[in-house]
Amino acid sequence: MRARRRRTRWADVPLALALWVLMAPMDGAGAQAIADHLAACKDEGAGTQARIDACTRVIRQAKDDEDILTEALLQRGVLYELSGDREAAIGDYSEVIKLDPSSAVAYFNRGNVHDQMGEHDRAIADYTEAIKLDPNDPDVFNNRGQAYDAKGEPDAAIADYSQSIRLSRDNSRAFFNRGLAYANKAEYERAVADFNEAIKLDPRDAEAYVSRGAVHEELGNEDAARADYRKALDIVPDHDDAKEALARLGN
What we know:
Serine Threonine Protein Phosphatase 5, Tetratricopeptide repeat
């Protein structure tokens, strides 16, 4: 069972505001062209490569406007990440940090990529910087907890998941991840309690049912385990782990 990841964040500047900032110091065809490219860069209905190309055009043409430049770099970093080009994504997030060291989202996103690449110490360093900049963001604590989990430091992970939960009681992923950490420490009753909370918050979470079922097995509660595996299959009929578990328990 693996801890669950949060999605990478897009830049949070509304397009209308970004275009107003862009148009204010400029006029004419050049400003309109950059505005059009930025709109294409942020167009979620377009293809990934087309959006990357549009972001690149903004970056080349808006070098004198740091607000627009950081916006386009952050957008392109996310797109590179989605396309699997992690090194390019890290490059763009790093450029954003150079231009705006107060960008918590750039540290957060770069931490996600480092974690995906197995560079957990670098990920933790980036998440820690993001927390310094925005200590009230539950997602950063959740993700740093996952990096600690990957390093085999469950106590540090549990501390971060717990802080994520304090900041957001409706954070089903943090309950799920803390449940996994407790299960890995053989603290099964605590694990069940966290999986219960995760399921209350997201009743269609097949992974939470499978994970709770596995803990019920460890506790010798085979009937409860079967019920959880069956519920997981109701949600995801081809869930391999649930199928294997039921076969092991004799359905």
